[in-house]
Design a protein that fits this description.
Elements: E1 3-8, H1 15-25, E2 33-39, E3 47-52, E4 67-73, E5 88-89, E6 95-101, H2 106-115, H3 127-137, H4 142-152, E7 157-163, E8 168-174, E9 179-182, E10 187-190, E11 202-205, E12 210-214, E13 219-223, E14 229-230, E15 235-236, H5 252-258, H6 260-266, H7 272-283, E16 287-292, H8 294-309, E17 314-318, E18 333-339, H9 345-356, E19 360-365, H10 371-375, E20 378-381, H11 394-410, H12 414-431, H13 434-447, E21 452-457, H14 461-476, E22 479-484, E23 501-505, H15 512-524, E24 528-533, E25 542-545, H16 554-571
Helix pairs in contact: 2-3, 3-4, 6-11, 6-12, 7-11, 8-11, 8-14, 11-12, 13-16, 14-16
The protein binds fructose -6-phosphate.
Keywords: Aminotransferase, Glutamine amidotransferase, Repeat, Transferase
InterPro entries: GATase_2_dom, GFAT, GFAT_N, GlmS/AgaS_SIS, GlmS/FrlB_SIS, Ntn_hydrolases_N, SIS_dom, SIS_dom_sf
Enzyme class: transferase
Amino acid sequence: MCGIFGVINDQTNEAAQTILTGLKKLEYRGYDSWGIAIKPGSSDSLLVEKHVGKIGLAQTSLPQGTIAIGHTRWATHGGVTDANAHPHLDCTKKIAVLHNGIVENYQELKVKLLEQGHTFISETDTEIIAHLIEEKLKNQSLKKAVFGTFKELVGSNAIAVLHGKSETIIACRNGSPLVVGMGVADAYVASDVPAFLKFTNNVHFLIDGESVILTKKSILLYNTDSGSEKKFSWSVLDWKVEDAEKGGYPHFLLKEIMEQKKTIPKTAQINLVEIEKTAALIRAGKKIVLAACGTASYCALAAKYFFAQGGIHAESYGAYEFLPFAQFCNSDTVFIAISQSGETADTLIAAKAAKKNGATLVALVNARGSTLERLADITIPVGAGPEIAVVSTKAFTSQLATLYLLSHAVDGTIAKAQQNLTDLGNALEKWLDVKLQKQVVELAKTLMDHEDMYLVGKHLNYPATMEFALKIKEASYIHAEPFAAGELKHGVITLIQKGTPCFVLSSNDRVKHEVLSSAAELKARGGHIVGIAPYESLEFDSLIKTPDAGDLTIFPNVIVGQLLGYYLGVGRGADPDKPRNLAKSVTVK
Ligand code: F6R
């Protein structure tokens, strides 16, 4: 939640513009308001501009300069107002602070600061940070004041502080992500790489307890606790600037959906060493526990079916409900945490609990340099590339394809699984095109005014219905409820009335006829049946035909849901890249 971005030695002398452009790339992290602070050329004082609303079309009137910081906000404490937008200043207006996280002890800190005579302008927890630094600066160096302040904050936090007089940016991390980018003379600090990818791909991901100090002359890394200097560990990312651009598509969401014809088959060629290492642990008898949140948890559930098909027992949990079961993890457990961002608080808590009990932690991540990756014994980066849209699509399919490979690696049939994924890639290449988009647009037009939809699927298509439904809910705000086909008769069927849209997800598998019976039952109650399947059936009132890819048919079945969510969202006036109330990485419990 919230995006932080800072630049020093901006090469264009238009640091505010650089920050604005970078913040637009971070908007997925929060988009209710934004703000920038700049240290203009000759003056020590800081100039700040902040506004409520999305940053997409925003412009800044801030003057030239080479040092600036900016923020895009996802409100936690304090409503969505200009005053609550970051950066926040101290009383002297010499210090500007950006923050991502929650300062859990801010109320007690604020009481003390009020007693000391500080004046507060906002209702945020963040503003106390600026005043605390101001207080400490009375008798301490900037470094000590910022590090000392940061250590007083309880909770998962990242901050960036701009001090005008010394032309310094200090950023500290504890629980919320930060990455430093080094250009030629220019340097950057941000919540995520896309903010500065245009300028450099040479990065250091901060770990908890690290702070970075950027000045005009140097970039130095520190241990926040001891204040002692540390060595950077720079890595050059293979991300391209185009990865963080819309590439001619109207929205990142559509671009990322269409990219899956490349990202899914790519999984068959990467991570083979890590997959084999994990498979060896499972072959040696370790029990598999999968945990994740949201979309990634549906991936966990689908993977459980893949493992079961190979005769391997796996458990799957929503990470937010895992703790009562953590006691059953031990050194005989492989705990597979699935997370696009690697920063989801509930997933991290579950992973830490499993690891504490002796489990081997395997992190299935997409973003790099995350907290989850640092915690893991084995990291499997699924390689979908930056996922900018808040609604997860290509990360989900890459994660699921990777787990499909793992399930086959355990019984020695990975080569066949690789071939199946390559074949799926070829099928998607033909099917996932403009013709399909048009077909889904036509379907969306017929569904636009409905407020409730139901979905059924069985076995592998059951988690697929969950993911399909989530895409509709997130992108279009329509209530879409997924059920296991077998659950229908146990109460659900009361919800079906004449004309209720009912999606039936199916593959050409051995449970196909049971699913078609459910479709018939829905139809008999007046349900309007939309088949999402690789075959035709009289039970379907309409059909989006998907490629027949055996077990992998759930991939195109889910892709239909992604496209439908997208077009319903566009049709209903939602912003498909940034749905209301959501943030890309949920770093709070
Ligand atoms: C759905 C979505 C969320 C995330 C969930 C977990 O489109 O984006 O449900 O899947 O918040 O996020 P990660 O995968 O980053 O742990």
